[in-house]
Amino acid sequence: MNEKILQTFIDKFGAPDTTIFAPGRANIIGEHTDYNEGFVLPFAIGQGVWFYAKAHEGSHFNMAAIDTNEETILTQDNSELKYGWEKFFRQVLSVLSEYNIKGADIVFGGNLSIGAGISSSSAITCGFVALLNQLNNLQLNADELMTKAVEAERGYGVRGGIMDQYSIFNGKKDKAILIDCRTNSHEYIDVEMGEHHFYLINTNVKHNLIQTDYNNRRAECEKAATLLHQNYRPIHALRDLTMADLPKVRLLLDDTLFNRVSFVVQENRRVLQTIQALAEKNFEAVGELLYASHDGLAQMYNVSCEELDWLVNYTFEEEQFLGARMMGGGFGGCTINLTRGLLDQNTVLDIEKKYKEKFGIKPDIMHVKCEDGILNRSVGSVE
Known about the structure:
The chain is about 40% helix and about 20% strand. By secondary structure, it is α+β, with helices and mostly antiparallel strands.
C-alpha cells in the first residue's frame, strides 16, 4: 500500500523529505469510559495511514488522497470544503494557527476502513499534526501533540475522549495501553498472545458519531454525575463510583440514567479484570469479559445495532471464538474478537456468506496485533 503512495508522490512532486505512519486503534475493553474519566485498554494496530510530504515556500497545501483518487489545494482560509476529508486537515491547521506553518505537497492513503470504529479520522488528524510538527520543526512534545489532535477532532463536533489519539501516538509493539483518562497517564500492559489472536470484523454499516446518540450518551453521564454529586455524595465523574454504590443510587436516578451509570461502573471494573486475566494468560476469562462488555453496551448503554449483535451472536456457536464485543462509539463499525488459533478460510467464508445472506453486505475481517504508534517509530521510516 505505502509503495503506491510513495510512487504517486514521486510522480507528482519528486522525492519526499518526510514520512509519517499513523496507525489505527483497536480497543480490547473499556468503551465509553474515557469521557467518564475511567479506564481503557487500547492498542495501536498495524493498519493505518501513510503520509509523504515535502515543504515548499508557499502557504498552501497540495493534497492528494490515494484511496479516493481526489486532489485539492488546501489553504488556511475558511472557504467551502471540496471533499469530506479536508475538514480533518483544516481543523489541524486551525489549532496550529499560532505557529508559522509552511505549505507542503502531501500524498496520503492507507488501509483503514472509514466508519469502522478503528479511528481512521483520528489517524488522519494525528498523522497531520505529527507531520506539521516535523516539517516545521515545532518541537511539540508528546502531550502537546496529543492535545492538539484532540482539540482538532473536537472542533468538528464529536465530544470524544482521548483514547484514540493517545493510542495512535503512544502505541507499542506487543503491548496494550492502560490509560487512566482522569490523569491522562498510561501504563504498558504486556500482551503475550501465544496461540491466541484478535480479529476485527467490520459490519460495513457506516456511522457518523456526530449524527448518532454518542454526544447524548456523554450528556446523560454528565447529568447523572451532577445529580449524584448533589444528592448522594461529592463526585467529579462516574469514575468515582464503585459497584458498592450502585444499590445506593438506584432510587436517585431514572431507569435510563441508572443503566448508563451501571454500565460505566461495571466496564471500569472489567478493564482491570482483563488486565489481571492477561497477566495470568487466562484467555477464557478475557473472552467472557468481552462478552459481558458487549451485553452491557447493547442492553444498558444502548449503542449496539442488529449487525453488531449478529456478529457477536455468531461466535457463541463457534468453539474457536473465546469472546467478542462491539468496539468503538457504536451504531455500526467493528466487533473485536478473541480466537484460539488463526481463523481458517472456511470460517471466514462462512461468516461472510451468512452475514451477506442476512444483511446484503459483506463484512471485512481483519487480523490485528499490538504495534508501535507514531512516537515509537522513527520519522521518515517506510513501512
